[in-house]
Amino acid sequence: ELPPAFASARTANEMIGTNMEQMLSSSTLRVFPNPVMTEASIEFVLAESGSVQLDLINAQGQTIKNIWVTKYSDQIQQQIDLDLSDLAPGMYFVQLATAKEQLRKKIIKL
Predict the structure, then answer these.
(1) What is the pLDDT of residue 100?
(2) CB neighbourhood size of 42 (10 A)
(3) Conformation bin of residue 50: beta by default, left when phi > 0, alpha when psi is -120 to 50
(4) From the CB of residue 108, how many other CB atoms can be counted at a distance below 10 Å?
């Protein structure tokens, strides 16, 4: 059995390893510029290959635009340009959904 000082160091390393695995296994979503006037870029990287659905959601939680649904490979950065010129100024959300996770980013339309 390890002395308490070494045992807690091992536990800390295990926790760091677990957090690193979680960070590496998570998909990412970025929307820019934000705030946006007419066009935003959406960048994402999926943690796993599979289907992805991107939606634009208003402040009331209603889907107002289905950006697209398609299959993508994991760990490859994707970028989509989104025309928002037809939207009223306000707060919106870009939502990325896969079979295992859902990410949402707030955007402000000026």
Answers:
(1) 86
(2) 20
(3) left
(4) 12
Eight-class DSSP state of 94: E
Query: What integer pLDDT is reported at residue 21 of this predicted model?
Result: 43
Cα–Cα distances (Å) from 41 to 1, 15, 99, in that order, read: 54, 35, 23
Query: Are the beta carbons of 68 and 78 closer than 8 angstroms?
Result: no
Spatial CA neighbour of 82 closest among 46, 38, 51, 45 = 38
Closest CA to 36 of 80, 92, 79: 92
25-39: pLDDT as tens digits? 588 999 999 999 999
Max Cα-Cα span within the chain: 66
Q: What is the pLDDT of residue 25?
A: 52
- For the chain, which ranges sit under pLDDT 70? 1-25
